[in-house]
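Lab manual, section 2.4: Encoding a predicted structure.

Procedure: take the sequence of the chain (206 residues), apply the prediction step described in section 2.3, and record the output as structure tokens. A sample record is shown.
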Amino acid sequence: MRRLQMHLPDWMQDWLEILIPGIQIFLIILVAWLINWLIKRIISRAGKAYDLPHELLMPLRGVFRWIIIAAAVLAILERLGMSATVLWTAFTGFATVGAVAFFAAWSVLSNLFCALLIAMARPFRIGDYIEVLDTAEKPGAKGRVVDINLLYTTLEDHGAAVGHTAWLQIPNALIFQRVVRRFQGSPPPAESPSTRYSSDKAGSFS
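Recorded output:
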């Protein structure tokens, strides 16, 4: 390339110093856009194939989009003449801050990951009657699944008093740490307060 520039007139060499970095930056942006478009298509097809909720696909697209943007910005800054050492220092600094933020938000991220597992493994669906047990012997939260979002699984409390409606919001990560009993067909019989009191009293004497 330098040999070619030596045979060109001075005014053209000045233009090449602007044109070549401009073409490189354009190609970086074009490649980043194509990668982002390809990942969006892959996520969309995976969502249709596994029937994943839209609320789960949006954060995945956002994460990949920001990763691609960060990589493209670093590549553009390098083309503009910034030192690779400076870029690496900035990258490691951002990575350290990101790691600290990751561990600080671990409980939220674990719920997001468990929501993805629930959507893919489908241990239960909306409308099913389930019971989340501490152990296989002790009764737990029981109700009909009415909503599954990125953080919580919401149950319509089956043990609520007659004439009252109560909702149980269980973190998704907690569901994977407990035994889940899934009822098929009709809902399980509701346990009256007197029966629950007598069973708890009998358990305390045993």
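Check your result against the sample. The longest strand covers residues 141-148.
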